[in-house]
TrEMBL record:
Compositional bias (Pro residues): 12-22
Protein source organism: Luteolibacter luteus
Sequence segments annotated as region (Disordered): 1-29, 100-143
UniProt protein name: Transglutaminase-like domain-containing protein
Record keywords, A-Z: Membrane, Transmembrane, Transmembrane helix
Low complexity compositional bias, start-end: 1-11
Transmembrane domains' residue ranges: 41-61
Amino acid sequence: MKRPPSSKVPGVRPPSPGPAGPAPRRGGATRIVRAAKANTIGGVGALAFAAFVVGGVWYSIEARKPRVVVIRQDGGGAEGSEEQAKPLPQAEARDVFDFSKAPGNGPKGTPEAVESTPFGTRRPGSAMQADGTPGVAGKAGAATTQPENPAIAALKAETPLVLTGLDAGRDTATSRDQALLKTAMDSRGWDAYRALLERSLGAALPTLAGKEGRNRFDTLWSEPAFYQSFLRWQVLDRFTQADIKEISHDTYALEMLKWLLNNPKAMEEVLLTMKPEDDSAKVLVFLKDAWTANSDKFPKFFNLALACAVVFDRTVEIGEPLGGESSVNGLSRYLWYIEKDEKGKLTAPVHRSSARDLVWVVCAPVATSELEWAIDKVHMGRGSWGNAYGMVEYLMERAVKGLNPYEEYSLAEILKEGGICGDQSYFSVNTARAHGIPALTLAGETDLGGHAWAAIKTEANQWDTNVGRIGGVSKGEGGNVQIGGSISEQEIWLWNDRAHQSDVTTLSVYRHLWLSDLYAALGKFDDTFASASLANELGRSFPETWSRFYEVKEEKEQKDVYRQSADPVIVKAWKEFAADMRREFKDNPRMAALAARAEDEHVFPYSEEGEVGRAMNRERRRIVRNSGEQADLIATSLKREADIIKKRGDATATRDIGRLYDGALREYGGSITGFKMMAEDYYTATKGDSEASKKAVRDIELAFKRVVETGSKDWFRANTESGIYRMIVGYYRSIGDEGRAKLLEKRYERLLRLAERGAL
């Protein structure tokens, strides 16, 4: 089943380059903070009075402090959870483009619902019991008792594996390791096997892990037996016992699984690529099918198989069906790329790329005949593939009148007839993908209206997001072909960061996040905190490390019975967290959304009103100074401040919100996207107060005329300004001023007629 995005900031359990991670399962540990309840202490005879006194004192102390309870999950979900963790922040979504319909991005549908847990999300009902274990629910829902499979019972009783020292590499230890793995396969007792791995890792950790320093955990990765078991433990969290059960009848599947669990490099690739939203059962089935189709080539093309597995776990529809193909056959796509790679037809051979890159290759929502056409007809160097965008002549009649010049929507027809920005992006992106080059279409609103352009990985370690891009884009987004939803242009910029380009650095960062998972499962909070902190230190430019550090920092404070949230020391620490994160992402502030959450929850509630306003002003000046094009972030900051003012609930709140937006529209309203967002938020904030709403609409119109309206006869600019006019007309009608609405309506209709005449 498909797991939708976590409510938390991306990167939370299990870490993968992308949004949030799943909850610990099977031998994992869910950390639940709850108020300790009073225990009844009773006694009889002479002890009654003493028990009463002692019990009363104990209750008084215990009832005041939070308790962290580590609950084992050997058989299923987190039992006894009294409250769920609050979701971490997400940047406010303001869509200007429907990515489910964006050409070249391949919609994947809507993810299913999930249950929240303190460490991310989980699929409802994912904690399934294995055959032969007690407590399996019957058809009527009543529990039935079955005798436990002796092999599973034996796995549960096994002593820890030898994972360190010379003995770990001797034949006795390696033979036992393989025998126990075979037992897990034969009995389908993967939960019991994973619990054995966890016990073994827990026993070995004290002898391997250091006490301090950036390299304190490096010995863990250099111990082959330990590291292999560590990776297996993580991989068996991605693929549930129920997932593996679905393929266990197939000997080819078991061969593939044995190969995977004995190949650390392949397991690392799985952990770095898979995300909690991926349908793990379908991913596993695809890998089995790829192995069955050609097991000899599977090791060489494993990354390709994995990329196909996480993309085609949902149907990828072909937007413009050709030759009878209405959707992409994932296995056929996998075999097609192998064939072209081995014949040397690809500009960027796929066997050299990571699965994370190949996700943006195999996803092309086009028929195989289109890929063949691109291989035969379009030839250029990888570094110059951005020129493919300009190969398609711009067709003004299509932009103004909606002309459709194509007999069929194909790459050949687009090249022949020309098109608009969406067609140019479609052509350049999908011809690049055909040649093994990662690419995606981006779209956003500029000062001349909506626009589409391309992001293409024109070098092995460099994405170019300027293919067809024009200035003034506040928030560019593309469709996320792996998990659905969207991905921002700024996330792609982050992939160009030197630390993200380094495989060594990336792996080191995620190893520490995975280790934090293990320590959490073992109930060792101090080590959980230490490994998460070190991951953040090693990977400052990885948002996932900030998310994890945020979580463990919150939990650490919940465990501190001597300090309250309002304690100046605590508040100062959260101020420093927010400042550090903003400093790290100074040039890419969209990645620092978690800093705002830290302020809203841990700083502003304990700050003076004036201090909050000054902090928000500083944030907006910082955005303008470092990334003024991202005006939507300014609008988001204003809305945060307006919400804080509104929560005060005093008589001047509405007036103060009006003053805030009136000044901001004039100061920051030059961006089309920013102006529209601020206007919408301003009007919404005054709803329910007729006088305030009237003032808001007048303020919006005046600001529009001062900082936005140009009266230009350029068709794109005129169309954009007319769109804002229509918005203001709607506001006037909603406050009952029909006369003003009609006057403005006539004005923008005349503007459009003049611009259209000039365009054609």
